[in-house]
Every structure is written in structure tokens, then in C-alpha cells.
Amino acid sequence: MSSFSLELPTEEEVKEEVKAAILPTTKEEVVIADTAESRAKQIMDVDLDSFEQRKEYTDVINAFGVEDMKAARNKNAILQKRVGYFEKIGGENGEVAKGLEDLTIKMRDLDPSGIDFVKHGALGKVFNPVRRYFEKYKSADREISEIVASLEKGKKTLQEDNVTLEIEESEMREMTKKMQKNIELGMKLDDSLTAAVSNAKADGEDEEKIRFVEEEILFPLRQRIEDFQQIQVVDQQGIVAMEIIRRNNRELIRSVERAQNVTVTALRTAVTVAGALYNQKIVLEKVNALNATTNAMIETTSRMLHEQGTEVQRQATEASLSPETLQASYKETMAALDDLSKYRRDALPRMRATIETFRDLAEHGEAEIAKLEKSPNW
After folding, report:
1. Rounded Cα distance, 272 and 280, in Å
2. Predicted confidence (pLDDT) per residue in 136-173, tens digit
């Protein structure tokens, strides 16, 4: 029993599978061996004097497998065209392969991980990388949808082709099985006749019969076996080619399905996430800017509170006169009061003298006025 594996078999392994599939069963081998031995005995018992019997045997050998060979040739001619068509559809340059290649190019071109969404400098201000990217994505998204639609069409074609190939491969296997049976029968008949001829030669039997068997039976029989073998090899190559194409088609179908279900979805998810992350980055930058401004304001306010609060406290405390100032002022005031008292005391005699002087002057002046009033000339 072969080990379980998901790896694709090689071409040689496929060939071995094909060979194993066309081999006769054990029962068929027994029937073939019995038939060959029976027919060999009939041939060795040929009546050389009977033209009809000799002709019957040679005609049977000449007609051996002819219809199978014709059917195989016709089938090969049809399959050759179909295999070429299948290779064109699913091959390296086929519609599906080309679609997958185009999709790969678009996916790489739209990979958001390679886009600088926050471009700084003069170009970043003139060209908005986000807007340009999403415009590019919208344009490419239409192309991707067309590619996906084309891949879906190609996938259906591949599925239909595989159904056709499976039918053709099954029919070709049946033909190769028939051809293998003919080869087995021919080889067994050859072995039996060769052994019978050797025995006849050893027993000294009729040389004419030996020559008839060798020239009229064995020689065309071996030619026919060679024809069978060549046709079988061609048929096997056709089966192998169809099997490989079918398996490649299945891989392409799975690739299309992955592209539809995973790759395109992953791209659209990546674009959506990239846009969301960019929007988050913008919001975060604005939040950071706001936080920075707020922090600066808080820092400035705190510094002002610290500086001005100290000054206010200092000034509030120093708004009251200090005891030293009050003492000095009191001393100055008391000194001034003392000086004023001393001045007043010192001024009193002078003021008395002045008053007396003015009184004398007033009395003198009044006397003079009285004289004048008594003068006759007044």
C-alpha cells in the first residue's frame, strides 16, 4: 500500500499507473494462455494440402487486431487535436494562466505595504499619496473584476474540458487494454508456436510445415505484435498526456478558486485596513498635536502659577510695613515733632518782637495821619 501524499505524481509515476491499469487480470491471462495454446496446436496441425485451411489461418493472422488498430488510429487523431486545444487553454500561455499572471501583477502593484501614505516634504504637500493610491485602486479594481470574471469563465472551461478528457481517457484505456490483450495473446501464440516449431525440427517433421508456420504465421504475427506495441505506446502517451493535463487543470481550477476566495479578498481587506490605519494615523497625529498644545499650555500655566504665585505671596507679605520701617519712620516723625516744638519755642520771642515793632510802626503812622488831618491844606 502506497503512503499517503498530497504531492502530484511525476510523469513516470503516471506512466506506471497507466501500465498497471491496462494489464490483463489473472483470469484473463489464463484464458489468453489457453487460447494461444489451442490456436498454436490448430496451426501445427494444418493440412498443407488444403489451400482453404492454409488461407484461413493466414487470413486470421493478417486480420488479427486490425479493427482495434483502426479504432486506435482514429482515436489518436481526434485526441491529438483535443490535447493541443487543452494545452492551449490550460497551458503556460493559456487563458487561465495568463489571467492568473495578470492578477499577480495587479496584486503586487496594489500592495499597500509598499506605499508611503505619509509622505513628507514638498512632494507630499503637492501630491496626496492616499488620494492617488485609492484612485489607482479604483481603476485597478475594475480591471481585477474583469480578470476574475475571465478566470471564472476559464475555470468553467477547464471543468468542462476535464469531463471531456476523463471520458476520452477512459475510452483510450479501454483501447489500450484491448491492445494489451492482443499483445499478450500474440506473444503467447508466438511462444507456443516457437516451442512447437523447435520440437518439430528436433523430431525431424515436415520442413514445409515448419517453413509455412515460420514464414506465413510467425513472421506476420510478430509484425502485428510490433504494430500492437507501437500503437500501445502511442495510446499510453496519449493517456499520460490527458492525465497530466487533467491534473494541471485541477491545479489551475484550485488556483482560480484561491484567487477568487482568498487573494482578491485579501487585497480588498488590505486596502481597507490601509485606509483605516491611515485615517487612524491622521487622527492620532491631530490628537498628539492637541495633546502637545495642551501639555505646553499646562506647563506654561504651571510655570506662571509658580512664578506669579510666589511673587504675589511675596508682594502680599511685603505690602505691610516692616517693623524696621515703622520704627525708622516713627523716629523721623518724632524728630520732626521735636524740631517743630523747638522751632516754635525759639520763634515765640522773635514773633513777640516783631509784633511790638509793627505796633510801634502802626502807632507812629497813626500819629502822622492825625497831623495831616489837622493841616489846613488837607
Report:
1. 12
2. 777 777 777 887 888 888 888 888 888 888 888 888 88
Q: Which of 269, 245, 264 is nearest to 150 (CA)?
A: 264
73 vs 118, 249, 286, CA distance in Å? 68, 26, 78
Q: What is the pLDDT of residues 306-334, one digit of tens each?
A: 677 666 666 666 655 566 776 777 677 77
Q: Cell numbers of 44, please?
A: 501445427
Q: CB 164: neighbour CB atoms within 10 A?
A: 15
Are 180 and 236 in contact, with CB atoms under 8 Å apart?
A: no
pLDDT, position 170 = 85
For residue 373 the three cell numbers come to: 488831618
Cα–Cα distance, 138 to 146 (Å, whole number): 13
Instruction: Tell me if the pTM is above 0.85.
Output: no
- As a whole number of angstroms, the longest Cα–Cα distance in the chain is 229
Q: Please state, in angstroms and rounded to a whole number, the distance separating the CA atoms of residues 347 and 20.
A: 156
| Residue type, position 41, single letter | K
Which of 104-126 are b and which e, b meaning 16 or more Cβ less than 10 Å from the residue's Cβ? Answer: eebbeebebeebebebeeeeeee
The three-point CA angle 162-149-132 to 5° equals 145
Cβ atoms of residues 284 and 117 within 8 Å: no
